[in-house]
Amino acid sequence: MPTRRATERRKRSVESKFTNLYYDDPSTWRATYWFGVHTAKCPLDLWIFQEIISETRPDLIVEAGTHKGGSAHFLASICDILGNGEVVTIDVIEQPDRPQHPRVTYLRGSSTDPEVAAQVRRRAEAVERVMVILDSDHSEAHVFDELCQFGPLVTPGCYLIVEDTIVNGNPVLPDFGPGPAEAVDRYLAQEPSLFVVDRSREKFHLTFNSGGYLRKIG
Ligand SMILES: C[S@@+](CC[C@H](N)C(=O)[O-])C[C@H]1O[C@@H](n2cnc3c(N)ncnc32)[C@H](O)[C@@H]1O
To answer: 4-216 falls under which CATH superfamily?
Structure first.
């Protein structure tokens, strides 16, 4: 009978191999659509977003990294079903044909630009519950700056989701260099009492956001 440690090791190995297979295959997240709009996500993470949003009922969801607008449209659809919530999504590039939705506001600029930050802060100060999703430039330096800027806006009980923590060999793209996972480590070391890493959100064994589901505690 295998020991618990051996079983755990085998599980981690299967997860790692499947994550690499899923990430590298061009027919998975590169070809995922929400009502016809490309959404660069693993659907199991989108399902977790839905569970988090329905549990925590954010009034405002801030997304850094719009791309085609598929994820913003997905978030707005969940808000529609719940009858609550607005989405503010930020990108340096304005892609053509982004979906228009009454709950979605598109902001153009860098997510760490002080002017963009001020606009988001004003929106956040006007509501009770704020959630943030970071999915823009995945370099450690940029994600760390985003964490410092947006972390304080997240309200207690709500989530700050750091996307694509799996790059830099965690376990995909080993040559990426320091990225979101390293930024999370640095931020949590600097702010140890603001967030907890909620590993229960990784229950499906496949996630692009391993260690990136952060729940605000204080
Ligand atoms: C991974 S894509 C976002 C995917 C989108 N959230 C989705 O799930 O479909 C990353 C986006 O971040 C944008 N980006 C890169 N650097 C940025 C920055 N400094 N501020 C805001 N957006 C940035 C890119 O233009 C790109 O559209």
So the answer is: Vaccinia Virus protein VP39 (3.40.50.150)
| Confidence category of residue 218, pLDDT binned at 50, 70, 90 | low
Q: What letter represents residue 100's amino acid?
A: Q
Q: Render pLDDT for 132-161 as a digit per residue (tens, 0 to 9).
A: 999 999 999 999 999 999 999 999 999 999
Three-state SS string across 40-59, please? Answer: CCCHHHHHHHHHHHHHHCCC
Instruction: Dump strand ranges (E) for 13-171.
Output: 33-34, 37-38, 60-64, 86-91, 104-108, 130-134, 159-162
What tokens were used for 30? 């590169």
- Distance (angstroms) between ligand 1 centre and the Cα of 23 equals 18
DSSP state of 103: T
Say if ligand 1 is within 6 A of residue 91 CB.
Answer: yes
C-alpha–C-alpha distance, residues 213 and 218, integer Å: 16
Four-residue CA torsion sign, 149, 152, 158, 161: positive
Q: Which atom of ligand 1 is nearest to the CA of 68?
A: 9
Domains of the chain by residue range = 4-216
Q: Please, are residues 50 and 78 in contact by the beta-carbon 8 Å criterion?
A: yes
Taking a C-beta distance cutoff of 8 angstroms, is the pair 134, 162 a contact? yes
